[in-house]
Design brief:
Number of domains: 1
Protein name: Membrane protein
Keywords: Membrane, Transmembrane, Transmembrane helix
Mean pLDDT: 87
Number of helices: 3
Largest sheet: none
Number of strands: 0
Low-confidence stretches: none
């Protein structure tokens, strides 16, 4: 797991917390944010691998 991919899960949690607090449902927002973070993490990993594969070696 790359370092950028590792930030997707807690980042999603905090975004969900903020949205949940806006709607006065902080717990539901955290769960929603964690779920989205877990779903987006492999997608970010695919993009990371593709970008590193396309770059020439230095």
């Amino acid at each position: 797991m790359d370092y950028r991919q590792a930030y997707v899960i807690p980042g999603g949690m905090f975004v969900g917390l903020g949205i949940g607090m806006f709607f006065d449902q902080a717990g539901a927002g955290v769960i929603l944010g964690l779920g989205l973070g877990f779903l987006l993490s492999p997608i970010v990993g695919l993009f990371e691998r593709r970008m590193s594969r396309d770059q020439p070696n230095k």
